[in-house]
Design goal:
Layout: H1 3-14, H2 19-36, H3 45-58, H4 63-80, H5 105-113, H6 118-130, H7 134-139, E1 145-146, E2 151-154, E3 163-166, H8 169-182, H9 201-215, H10 223-236, H11 241-248, H12 253-256, H13 259-262, H14 264-267
Antiparallel strand pairs: 1-2, 2-3
Helix pairs in contact: 1-4, 2-4, 5-9, 6-8, 6-10
């Protein structure tokens, strides 16, 4: 490990950055240095600009990936190297405003019927029934399931925040069935193949994709899709936005507000002015 890499990791550790964030940032910095064949200490704003152009035009990376690279370089030059030039000159990519894919309740049911494994069904049912992120699913321990209070404790979610989410009777029944059948050991609710380690995020993504294919649904379904469905279906059932924000673990209500745009309460249940016309050419008149 180079001294610069060690310093950057130390700087992130003292600021309590998540382990995955530390790994991502150091990887992006490493790729940046490899692209020019030089230490980042010998590079500056012009090389960063050229690298962003390369990632955009040649690699055609997603804006989210480009912004992760920017965040990593801003940390490196702003915190670890304390560059003399203004860090704000490293621009973030303009975020594309895309709405999340959401399944109807009928499609969610069809998806779960396509999952043969009880363990896999339990994992993804928590994603939908409690709105957990993949990283939160992997970290779940048996002791986080509070059947008496009917809540699930989410430890160190995004932003290192703990929260409690709902534990529905049906979800509790499924978790108990999984527990009786699997008898998981090692403390984690969903242990992985390595002793003492939880099921990893890649495995969850993989069996979610298999279930999506088996269901025959044409929409792209990921574990995060199920989290979007959780929020949207709560909103459509009349749950207020502030409650959904707390359950989702969003720091800003503006983040939760995106579900107003995908909910059918506004778009699907409102009568179009076209349908209010007494008659329309080519269509039968209202009786």
């Amino acid at each position: 490990m180079t001294p610069l890499r060690r310093r950057m990791l130390e700087d992130m550790s003292v600021r309590n950055y998540a382990k995955r964030t530390q790994e991502s940032y150091t990887l992006y910095v490493q790729k940046f240095a490899q692209h020019f064949g030089k230490s980042p200490e010998l590079l500056g704003p012009e090389e960063i600009r050229l690298y962003q152009i390369y990632l955009t035009r040649e690699r055609k990376v997603a804006f989210s990936t480009l912004n992760c690279v920017v965040a990593a370089l801003r940390f490196l030059y702003g915190v670890t190297l304390r560059a003399s030039w203004p860090i704000a000159t490293i621009p973030y990519a303009r975020k594309e405003k895309r709405l999340p894919v959401v399944l109807s309740p009928e499609e969610v049911s069809r998806f779960f019927h396509a999952i043969a494994s009880l363990k896999h069904r339990a994992v993804l049912a928590i994603a939908y029934g409690a709105g957990l992120r993949v990283s939160e699913l992997t970290a779940l321990r048996a002791t986080d399931i509070d059947s008496k209070r009917r809540v699930i404790r989410v430890r160190s979610g995004k932003g290192h925040k703990d929260r409690y989410v709902m534990l529905s009777p049906r979800l509790l029944e499924l978790i108990r069935a999984y527990w009786r059948a699997e008898h998981p050991k090692g403390g984690f609710l969903f242990p992985g193949g390595v002793a003492g380690q939880p099921l990893d995020a890649t495995s969850i993504q993989r069996f979610c994709q298999r279930a999506a294919r088996a269901s025959g649904l044409k929409k792209r379904i990921t574990p995060h899709t199920l989290r979007h469905c959780f929020a949207t279906h709560l909103l459509e059932a009349g749950t207020d936005l502030r409650t959904i924000q707390v359950l989702m673990g969003h720091s800003s209500l503006a983040t939760t507000a995106v579900y107003l745009h995908v909910s059918n309460k506004a778009s699907g249940e409102t009568t179009s002015p076209l349908d209010r016309l007494e008659s329309f050419p080519g269509l039968a008149s209202r009786s």
